[in-house]
Specification:
Elements: E1 3-8, E2 13-18, E3 45-51, E4 54-59, E5 64-69, E6 76-80, E7 84-86, E8 89-98, E9 105-112, E10 118-121, E11 127-128, E12 134-141, E13 148-157, E14 161-171
Parallel strand pairs: 7-14
Antiparallel strand pairs: 1-2, 2-14, 3-4, 4-5, 6-8, 8-12, 9-11, 9-13, 10-12, 13-14
Length: 172
């Protein structure tokens, strides 16, 4: 939520650009303490228009017009160590490749297209990007999942952007 996504079907990659302005009164941002949760609210994107490499949008709840320039270099890339796995239960790895040493913190993105499949991170919840690539390990388990082909989204979330790629998982 609160993101504008760009999906590349050839690369099976997803880049989600965070919309920074959001209205805390349009979301459940009060945990009952009378103090609003930090960075909480709703940025309701109302309309999108494409103009070359720019994505123009209107934001209803904050009454803004915004633009995402997709030519701006991404702060990191995600490379899968394998694009296809056969799984009952298996450890998978992928690599976060920083564009430059930034010291930025990212959190791994692990998401399945079937709720019966699980993906568990086998490492820290937060990673600091330096100048060297970082390998992330996770365990995919398909216990009780019917035979078929599924997708698992693997990537990293930065405060401003999330970059991910889809891994194809075949359950025999």
């Amino acid at each position: 939520a609160n993101n504008i996504g760009v999906f590349d079907p050839q690369e099976e990659s997803l880049v989600e650009y965070h919309v920074p302005s959001k209205n805390p009164f349009w979301a459940d941002c009060d945990p009952g303490t009378g103090k609003s949760i930090e960075d909480c609210g709703l940025a309701q994107i109302f309309d999108i228009a494409l103009d070359g490499s720019n994505i123009w949008f209107t934001e209803w709840v904050e009454n803004n017009i915004g633009v995402v320039d997709t030519t701006v270099p991404l702060p990191f890339d995600v490379q899968l160590d394998s694009e296809l796995v056969l799984v009952g239960e298996q450890t998978i790895t992928y690599t976060i490749i920083p564009a430059a040493a930034s010291g930025d913190q990212v959190t791994p993105v692990l998401s399945t297209t079937d709720s019966r499949m699980t993906v568990a991170l086998a490492g820290p919840d937060t990673i600091t990007l330096g100048s060297e690539p970082v390998t992330i390990s996770a365990t995919v388990s398909a216990a009780g999942v019917p035979s078929g082909t599924y997708k698992v989204l693997l990537g990293a979330q930065h405060p401003d952007i999330a970059i991910s790629r889809y891994l194809t998982v075949t359950v025999p």
